[in-house]
Design goal:
Elements: H1 18-28, H2 31-44, E1 48-50, H3 65-79, E2 97-98, H4 114-123, H5 148-157, H6 163-174, H7 201-212, H8 223-230, H9 237-249, H10 251-255, H11 259-266, H12 270-280, E3 303-308, E4 311-316, E5 323-326, H13 328-336, H14 343-376, H15 378-383, H16 393-400, H17 404-411, E6 415-418, E7 421-424, E8 432-434, E9 440-442, H18 443-455, H19 465-474, H20 481-490, H21 496-499
Parallel strand pairs: 3-6
Antiparallel strand pairs: 1-5, 2-5, 3-4, 6-7, 8-9
Helix pairs in contact: 3-14, 5-6, 6-7, 9-12, 11-12, 14-16, 16-17, 19-20
């Protein structure tokens, strides 16, 4: 007979507090995301302020370990104070970190008199905006990007067109997409353009031809038509005729780089077809992209590595360290008048302390990981990718005394600036591959060797993945063919059939 009873078991479970979970998420952020988050925190927390210090000295020099660690030590000391004590105690001048760069110096233009100021304003142009004091700002001197539709409308404005034709052309311009294509069928434009008398199909065709003549390749309804509109740019009549045949009838073979198939279909030599295909690839299949205003996202390194007196030194990039400090005036006033009604301000004060703590902990961990990586991979910095050593997260974690997951978070979206380039921290990690002699080799070194093989290959007889595998085996590197294929794709190198080039006829 079964019985039911209650029993209490005691177990110890490790859980993360909300603040610790928040710190872990902050450690995983990139420098740009972290700076944006710090600016948002700074705007909401009255106990945090930006230090208005001097600009950083551009001349790089290594920082002594004792001085480099003083910033983080002073911040950690501030967290150990009793809450009833001075909330600003332990925060030294060196411990002040800022999310934004210090404000620039005031304008030092020395105008001798009002006539010089008027002369400066007159010479600068009248179409630029002016500030309230009459001076120009830096934003006034920046060039404004021009969109495709704005550019085409400007070209239509200088054409002597009747009002009816101009309205039809403008309607077509407004129907273009970002690539410069006309994806809307002409039949649907009858309802868009309401004119009296009604628009005819012949008028829309004429307007379409007029818009296509404004810029090469625009207002096309397919890739084939887009390339055909740009073929008149080819000066040689024979080459233009071959290019038109390829674009109109064999576009799929052109995309597949089937030079031999095109040569058989058109009755030409492979070298001649190769020359024509190279000329076609110089055309623009997306003409609208020339007027796009896409911004380039630049990588901001978190650490800077330089060689100083024969030793590799690692320093945090001052540009990514938010220089924040506790507002001592507000903290002292709150401490003096603290009561139960000011719980929200008390939460802000606790958040400010934890923010300073997280800033110190984040950059201290990044610096420790970067220093450990440089110690292990100094041969890479001296001799290049072939000297990259196999490295795992566990090795760095054991060296600096943290968990592997912490090293994984630190190396994600964090970058290191070196004399040989900017690298993501996780690119220094790779698994060990045993060679024929029993030594270990990193995947980075093998990728570099594969790249060297392909760069030295003949254009007419490129190396296949199987041939690269055989050449690696001859050097004692036993690598599977599928691994070579994966490494080649990682390097963004095309397959052997797409790399083959035929010798051009003399």
């Amino acid at each position: 007979m079964t019985t039911m009873d209650f029993r209490a078991d005691h177990k110890q479970l490790q859980t993360l507090s909300p603040r610790l979970q928040h710190a872990v998420r902050l450690l995983h952020m990139s420098s740009l995301d972290y700076a944006a988050m710090m600016r948002d925190t700074l705007s909401k927390n009255p106990f945090l302020e930006v230090e208005e210090g001097e600009d950083h000295d551009p001349d790089w020099a290594p920082v002594e370990p004792s001085r480099a660690d003083s910033t983080f030590d002073s911040l950690f000391e501030a967290q150990g104070r009793d809450e009833d004590g001075d909330p600003s105690a332990g925060l030294e001048d060196g411990a002040r970190l800022s999310a934004d760069s210090s404000p620039g110096a005031e304008d030092n233009h020395d105008y001798r008199d009002d006539s010089d100021r008027d002369l400066w304003s007159t010479q600068s142009g009248s179409g630029q905006r002016q500030q309230e004091d009459g001076e120009f700002s830096a934003l006034d001197l920046m060039s404004a990007p021009t969109s495709l539709t704005t550019h085409l409308h400007g070209l239509l404005n200088v054409l002597p067109l009747p009002l009816r034709d101009l309205m039809l052309a403008r309607a077509l311009v407004e129907s273009l997409d970002d690539d410069g294509y006309l994806r809307t069928p002409l039949e649907e434009l009858f309802t868009v353009v309401e004119l009296d008398p009604p628009t005819t199909a012949a008028e829309l065709q004429i307007a379409l031809k007029r818009v296509q003549a404004l810029e090469p390749g625009v207002a096309a309804r397919s890739v084939c038509e887009c390339l055909q509109l740009q073929l008149p740019a080819i000066a040689c009549p024979n080459m233009q005729a071959l290019a038109r045949s390829i674009v109109c009838s064999h576009l799929s073979m052109l995309a597949a780089r089937d030079v031999n198939g095109l040569a058989r279909a058109l009755g030409q030599t492979p070298s001649r077809i190769e020359e024509v295909c190279n000329r076609i690839r110089r055309l623009d299949p997306r003409p609208g992209w020339r007027f796009s205003s896409s911004e380039v996202a630049y990588v901001v390194p978190d650490v800077i590595v330089r060689k100083y007196k024969g030793q590799w030194n690692v320093q945090l990039n001052p540009a990514v360290i938010p220089k924040l400090r506790l507002n001592q005036v507000y903290a002292q006033l709150f401490q003096r008048h603290r009561n139960a009604q000011n719980r929200e301000l008390g939460a802000h004060l606790d958040e400010a302390r934890w923010t300073l703590h997280n800033v110190a902990q984040r950059f201290s961990t990044i610096l420790d990981v970067a220093q450990a990586i440089v110690r292990r991979q100094k041969n890479f910095l001296d001799y290049g990718a072939m000297a990259m050593q196999p490295l795992g997260l566990k090795e760095i974690a054991q060296e600096i005394g943290v968990h592997e997951s912490t090293v994984s978070r630190v190396t994600n979206n964090k970058f290191m600036s070196t004399p040989v380039g900017v690298f993501e921290l996780k690119s220094f990690f790779s698994r060990a591959m045993v060679t024929a002699s029993g030594s270990a080799c990193s995947g980075t070194a093998i990728r570099s060797l594969i790249k060297d093989f392909i760069e030295a290959e003949s254009a007419s007889t490129p190396l296949s993945d199987a041939e690269i595998t055989r050449q690696l085996a001859q050097q004692g590197l036993i690598v599977a063919r599928r691994t070579v294929t994966k490494y080649r794709q990682t390097l963004k190198i095309e397959a052997v059939d797409r790399r083959k080039r035929h010798a051009l006829a003399a």
